[in-house]
Amino acid sequence: MGQHILDSTFDAIFGLNLAWEINYCNKAGCDLLGYSATELIGRNYKEFFKDCENQGFENIVETLLFNESLKPIRTDYINKEKKRRAASIQYSPIKDQNGKISGISSIVRLVSQYEKANSKAQALLETAPDAMVIVNKAGEIVLINAQTEKLFGYKKEELLGKEVELLIPDKFLKYHRANRSKYTSKPKTRNMGQGMELYGKKKSGKNFPVEISLSPLETEEGMLVSAAIRDITKRKKVEKELEKYNQQLQNKNKELEQFAYIASHDLQEPLRNVLSFTGLLKENYSTELDEMGLKFMYFITEATTRMSLLIKGLLDYSRIGSNTKLESVDCNVVLAMVQDDFDPLIKETNAVIKVSELPIIWGYEVEIKLLFQNLIGNAIKFRDPNRPAEISVSASKEEGDWKFCVSDNGIGISPEYKEKIFIIYQRLHAGKDYEGTGIGLAHCRKIVDLHGGKIWMESELGKGSKFYFTIHEITSA
Ligand code: ADP
């Protein structure tokens, strides 16, 4: 009866003495190794079974002699056809009538390929930074990693074998089920729900924003789908805050621009009065003033004229970008106009301007002209007194943007002023050396900003400067 039971079990069972010689083998054991019982009995078990993972055969005997229990051990065995297979083996002690250990029993269970692959996959999954959920074609969860347990608040046992929709908020369930079957019929690696906001559902019922990328896995058991799930709650929060600050900043900017416009506009009126009354004073009372009085009058006129220029600059600055229309702008034409405007100055100073072929861009023509006017005007103004100005204007395409360069051989700018020169009213020279209000480059920066580009400068003191700016292609609405 006992023998019958042992022969009808699917597990291979071996009886071994303490020297690992086989003294018993059931039918499943014979089938496993491919030998008959008579061929196996008397042979050493170690001929067939490999040394186990971390447990040598000696350790197994020792552990059993100390009456300690052993967990099933994964190892390989080699059958009659010299094929290597994986098995899980339970070793237990065989005791005689006196309770003394006289041998070892080995119960061998085959590890299927699937199980083997699974354990490898599990090890891999645990190294992933994201929560990983692997689902079969029926939508049942077959594998998850520890990150999934942490993120969703479920224990592994609560998820394995369950429908993956357990992790999805109720209002997306229908949509998810429909799209799941669509995906399995045409699987490819991709982000899930492109352009959609995706959410996961924790065990507590709380929904949270996620980003999911899907990949199909071909296995012997059919197609599986792996989903890498990333919690983007923090990112969403930061994005929202950024959006809020951006809006606040835009509002503040608008307010400031309006303020600058109103202030500069309204300041012009009393200033015009001062200018015209000092003009009248000069005309009608200059004979009554002594030399000192005339000098003072001259200072007043100088200062008010300068103030008027400064205010006009500010007014122009606040007007940039308003009341203009986007159009295609041929920069070659613009440059020709700018050169025309500067013609008398070019002749007077013997400046040479070389212009390469420039692109046609989509922009604000008046502003683009002002931009080149300021840069070329500065290049002539800040020329080296010992040589005529040589200026070149060129453009190249870079990562979809046009990158322009206006270079000169002028006095140059020290690197520490790289940023400062673009700030409104910032000048590096006294008015008596070079005329100006310090607003030209601020204009340039605002114009380039308006076109979605960047402006910067590279220079070597005494040798010349290169002003670069990019124009981001603005597409028409
Ligand atoms: P402005 O020309 O009215 O002084 P900008 O804003 O155009 O004001 O220029 C700011 C400062 O940057 C100038 O005062 C000058 O010191 C410096 N700068 C601008 N362009 C050049 C250049 N091409 N070469 C040397 N210095 C320059």
UniProtKB/TrEMBL annotation:
Q: What is catalyzed by this enzyme?
A: ATP + protein L-histidine = ADP + protein N-phospho-L-histidine
- The residues covered by the PAS domain are 1-68, 117-170
Coiled-coil annotation: which residues?
A: 235-262
Q: Which domain of life is it from?
A: Bacteria
Q: Where are the transmembrane segments?
A: none
Where does the Histidine kinase domain start and stop, copy by copy? Answer: 262-475
An example GO biological process term is: regulation of DNA-templated transcription
Which Gene3D superfamilies does this entry report, sorted A to Z?
Answer: 1.10.287.130, Histidine kinase-like ATPase, C-terminal domain, PAS domain
Note whether Coiled coil occurs among the keywords: yes
What are the PAC domain coordinates in residue numbering?
A: 194-244
Enzyme category, top tier: transferase
Keyword Phosphoprotein carried by entry: yes
What are the recorded GO MF terms, alphabetically?
Answer: phosphorelay sensor kinase activity
Question: What Enzyme Commission number(s) does the record list for this chain?
Answer: 2.7.13.3
Specify the protein name: histidine kinase
Organism equals Cyclobacterium amurskyense
Q: What is the lineage of its organism?
A: Bacteria, Pseudomonadati, Bacteroidota, Cytophagia, Cytophagales
